[in-house]
Design a protein that fits this description.
single chain; 200 residues; alpha+beta; 7 helices
Length: 200
Amino acid sequence: MTRTDLSAALPLPAPSDEMRRRLADRRSGPAQALAAPGPSKAELDAILRLGARTPDHGKLFPWRFVILSPVARARIAEALAPMAARQADPGKAAKVLMKLTAPPATVLVISAPTPGHKVPVWEQQLSAGAVCMNLEHAADAFGYSASWITDWYSYDPEATALFGVKPGEQVAGFIHLGSLAEPPLERPRPEMAGKITRID
């Protein structure tokens, strides 16, 4: 459902045990383990609409999406292979290309800030990061696992050109989507007492 009436009041937050449970259990899946089924075109369109409902100081929408088909990812991975050989750890750099080709669906989120605006570029970049997290939650709502990663080809200018990243833009993340054959294991979480400062 797309809301277009800007004068319509949105529902106020309501307690939801189900939402709390899903947030507590959310866990990224390994990109290389994501397999079919992945989201349909209609589901992916809905996931993108939900992902775009993110904090955005200035209403700049300082990000954009690139949907990478399996064929496109295979072609790009082949072009990335010679560049992998030039990385500090060529073996590892080549191995991570499997993360790019294995999942059934991939959305590249590109941070595209508006320079010279009163909203600092850093805040615009944070909005792109929030989009990535929203996409993970939206995928979960449709019953899919997601993996938000970057890897070396997100930072190599020659590599990012293959994905259509323009000057002034940066890769915020590759959001890989699909299904897992087995539930993911929990990972270490922070001790919250060491992460919280209270100022009275």
